[in-house]
Amino acid sequence: TLSYDYLVVALGNRLAFEDIEGFAEFGDSVSDLYLGEQLRQKLHFGGYKGGPIAIGSARFHQGDGAKGLEPYPGGSIPDALAACEGPPVEVMMAAAHYLAETKQGDPSKITVFTPAELIAEDAGETVVKQLLDLATQMGFNYLNNTQDIKRITKDGIEFADGRSVEAELKIIFPDWKAHEFMRGLPISDSEGFVVTDLLMRNPKYKNVFAAGDAAAVTMPKLGAIGHQECEIVGLQIAKDLGRLSPEQADKPLQPVVYCIGDMGGGKAFYIRSNTWFGSRCNTGPSSCTTRGKCLLGGLILLKWPLSTIFPSKRRSGVVATQPAGGFLPAGFLFGRPGITQSHGAVEHRFHRAVIMLVGNKIAIAFPLKTRFRCAGGE
């Protein structure tokens, strides 16, 4: 037994590959070094024979712990059928580059699928429309409303809605579940995620907080939102200890979908949006206000080769180490084997430098904190 003054639950979640029939025998993913290396070996050392590729998500079971919360006036924490679909989008783009670079085909070999009405729906309809228009122009195949993955076989994937897709490579993102020991606790919701208000406190136990994927309010399960939540927890505890006033500390969560994705070939996409949660001011990719209530609502493509930013013989954009708490960068899997760069030294600098190139008019990013500049404010 442990006693405490404050309890902060930040345990992350569990990726439920075991719920997908056939995954162990026929599936691939990018969720850890073991699975990432397994896929890399197939791609670069003869395992992959050039057949169709399917990339997408199993259904996410969200729970009821964020019902009734209003992060923006008139808004909500919506229900989602996928926990986070930035990774499938990133992997599909990098896979297309890999096929072209290795002369094994083009995006028409790739099917991306989602259990939801829209892939990456948490980015907002404006962003998703831009993304789907781009994917259609490139030649990707797209399946929505698959409901869930029924089973994976040697030859493809069968979906819960009765459809199927042929695929040699099946790159899967599973259900994200709360840890089993969190289920049934008085602080947890119907799926085991911790119930909090928008100040990250449990409503029944005021000295219990949660942040990151373990919190019910964290939707999508995104690192940038977890970062926002950790700052709120720190402010709340400082207030309780008399170090901050309520005016300084009581800044409720207003989640922002913030995503930078590797597309392969020294290219990336950048998304920053809050419209999914009910923010009403999505007026296009260049809009923002002095208080950050209205954020970038568009998909920005960053097309500068890495070599133009960091002149170096090592310029493939490969990242060889896993970011804490995240999926492996697509460059690790689809870049050329044998060329490595450290995540901390290169990927963060790459992201910062790319945003600065775009950011003469849009954004300047700094480590850990990002400040956005546009006409009329910050």
Tags for this model:
single chain; 378 residues; alpha/beta; 3-stranded antiparallel beta sheet; 16 strands; 25% helix; 17% strand; disordered C terminus
Describe this structure in words.
The protein has 378 residues and is an alpha/beta fold. Helix content is 25%, strand content 17%. It has nine helices and 16 strands. It has a four-stranded parallel sheet with strand order 5-4-3-9, covered by helices on one side. Strands 6-7-8 form a three-stranded antiparallel sheet. Strands 12-13-14 form a three-stranded antiparallel sheet. A hairpin with a 4-residue loop joins strand 7 (156-159) and strand 8 (164-166). The longest helix has 18 residues, at 223-240. It is globular.
Order of helices and strands: EEHHEHEHEEEEEEEHHEEEHHHEE
Unreliable residue runs: 282-297, 304-326, 336-378
Number of β-strand runs: 16
Proportion of strand residues: 15-25%
Main sheet makeup: 4 strands, parallel
Which word captures the global form? globular
Structural class: alpha/beta
Q: Radius of gyration from the CA trace?
A: 21 Å
Count of helical stretches: 9
Distance between the termini: 48 Å
Rounded mean pLDDT score: 80
Specify the helix fraction band. Answer: 10-25%
Strand adjacency order, main sheet? 5-4-3-9
What's the short story on this structure?
This protein is 25% helix and 17% strand. The protein is of the alpha/beta class and 378 residues long.
